[in-house]
Design a protein that fits this description.
Blueprint lengths: L1 E7 L3 E8 L5 E7 L4 H7 L6 E5 L5 H9 L3 E5 L1 H6 L8 H14 L10 H32 L12 H9 L4 H34 L1 H6 L7 H11 L8 H7 L4 E3 L8 E4 L5 H17 L1 H13 L4 H20 L19 H5 L1 H4 L4 E2 L5 E11 L2 E9 L1
Parallel strand pairs: 1-4, 4-5
Antiparallel strand pairs: 1-2, 2-3, 6-7, 8-9, 9-10
Length: 387
């Protein structure tokens, strides 16, 4: 069996390989565009293990390896670079370093979504980009209206507001701009409506998405994005790891016994983080008890911190629901169910509920238990091992 370390680039790749049976090694540069790379991997006598850093525009390469019967491992680029201490960085050194990590069993392999999950991600991203374009179009129309003394804010998009906008006297290119923006807005509304229907259908088919929609403020888009981004949450041992995966934990620069915490790290999926914070703002408008908790946290921290922290709390409870696969018998009442509100006490204990048992091998089970009391705004944890 051959083990191959690949330093991938969109137009070419540098590979270093090792034959595990004979000990033979080698390296070469392969061009992607003229088929040289595919001919190299097709000529291998038996399936090989290929390690490559996580990077963009490489999906075709991974699919080609799978089609040819090879096994591809995707590695964390930051951890791969951190494990290389030399100051000299070249493509040949990078490929050889990846090969060394594979041989020594230190390759930082990451989770890779399935083809179906990637396809649903494209649906969500496409809709999100169209919504961003529609927002720009609406801002342009608002600018035209306000320049003529019409200040209707959100009512500009009502039937009466649209009629008043069309009747607004605009000459020259300003009139042409209004005409084009209105036509573009109508087209975008139609396309986004079709995508909303597709998202709803996908969410209806996914049991986990249906379960997550019982959370306050979580609709089909947020639920589906969480499912296809997090995958199987049982790979996370505790709730803090889920929050860390999306960058919802604070930066830290602690030394000498002094703890220094900063803003959230934002080292994770920005799209899901945005949806979680939007979910918080939605539920604060509809749930009085939730709004009080949100306002209390906003008073204790900088602007925006309350929404981020409550969004992280929603994330942890969503991960908890995803893990138990619909078993909500541990709750006294189904918090966040349709037509019900979330109490302040339930918000404070959401992080505690996200600590779930996980197997550590043999007959032992390690259980993470959250302490109900809060110290300095953070939750302490205790653990024990039970048979």
């Amino acid at each position: 069996m051959k083990i191959i370390g690949c330093d991938f680039h969109p137009s070419w790749q540098q590979v270093a390989w090792l034959d595990a049976e004979t000990g033979e090694t080698g390296e070469c540069k392969l061009v992607n565009g003229d088929g040289e790379a595919e001919r190299f991997y097709r000529a291998l006598a038996e399936p090989a293990l290929v390690g490559v850093e996580a990077c963009g525009n490489s999906q075709w390469f991974l699919e080609m390896l799978q089609r040819l019967g090879h096994e591809a491992w995707i590695g964390d680029a930051a951890q791969i670079r951190a494990s290389y201490v030399r100051k000299q960085k070249t493509d040949k050194r990078d490929a050889a370093h990846i090969l060394r990590l594979l041989v020594e069993g230190r390759f930082p392999r990451i989770w890779v979504p399935s083809a179906g999950q990637r396809d649903v991600r494209q649906l969500l991203i496409h809709r999100h980009k169209l919504v961003e374009i529609r927002t720009r179009v609406k801002n342009g129309l608002q600018h035209l209206a306000m320049n003529r003394g019409m200040q209707k804010k959100s009512t500009l998009w009502s039937v009466a507001g649209q009629k008043a906008l069309r009747e607004l006297p605009l000459q020259g290119w300003a009139g042409r701009r209004r005409q084009d923006l209105l036509a573009l807005l109508k087209s975008l509304d139609q396309q986004i409506g079709e995508l909303d229907q597709a998202v709803e259908e996908e969410a209806q088919r996914d049991k986990m998405a249906q379960l997550l929609r019982t959370q306050p403020g979580v609709g089909p888009i947020t639920a589906l994005a969480f499912v296809v981004t997090m995958g199987d949450v049982t790979r996370f041992r505790r709730g803090k790891q889920v929050a860390s995966y999306l960058g919802l934990i604070p930066r830290e620069r602690s030394s000498g016994g002094r703890q220094r915490l900063g803003a959230i790290s934002k080292q994770g999926n920005r799209f899901v983080r945005t949806l979680l914070v939007e979910a918080v703002h939605n539920v604060t408008r509809l749930d009085e008890s939730f709004r009080k908790t949100y306002q209390q946290r906003c008073h204790r921290m900088a602007k925006g911190g309350g929404g981020t922290q409550v969004g992280g709390t929603t994330l942890l409870d969503a991960a908890h629901q995803h893990r138990v696969s619909g078993d909500r018998s541990h709750r006294e009442q189904p918090a966040g169910a349709p037509g019900q509100s979330v109490s302040t006490d339930s918000i404070e204990t959401l992080i505690g509920r996200s600590r779930l048992p996980y197997e550590t091998g043999g007959s032992h089970r390690r259980i993470m238990v959250a302490v109900q009391g809060r110290i300095d705004g953070w939750w302490n944890e205790v653990s024990f091992t039970a048979n």
